[in-house]
Amino acid sequence: MTTTDTPRPTAPAIVCRPWCSDGDGHTNEFLADDQRCWSEWEAVPLSRMPLWEDINRGWNPQKLEVATEAGPRRQDAVLLYEGSRDLDLQLTAVEALAVAAALTKAAARLMDGAR
Ligand SMILES: [Zn+2]
To answer: Which InterPro entries does the annotation name (predicted)?
Structure first.
């Protein structure tokens, strides 16, 4: 038997969250600390922001991406990502709801003022 025939040890399955994009218990992870559920990313285009140039010299519209992450050995987090600045934020659910409420209030102020 060669070393390539030896099965790679993996961590036992975890119970996935209902929103997990994999839903397979993440048994393909070698370390239990790497087992975590990820939601699908949702992207919000930022039409008022300028295009940004990536490392392949491509021009891209800016967007804010949102996802959720959780696992038995990690704190649950709402993830925010913006690629032009490589901005990577992690929020608690309470913090995410506070940001959402602030955004809703600001947007409502603008819409109310537009009348
Ligand atoms: Zn999962």
So the answer is: DUF6907
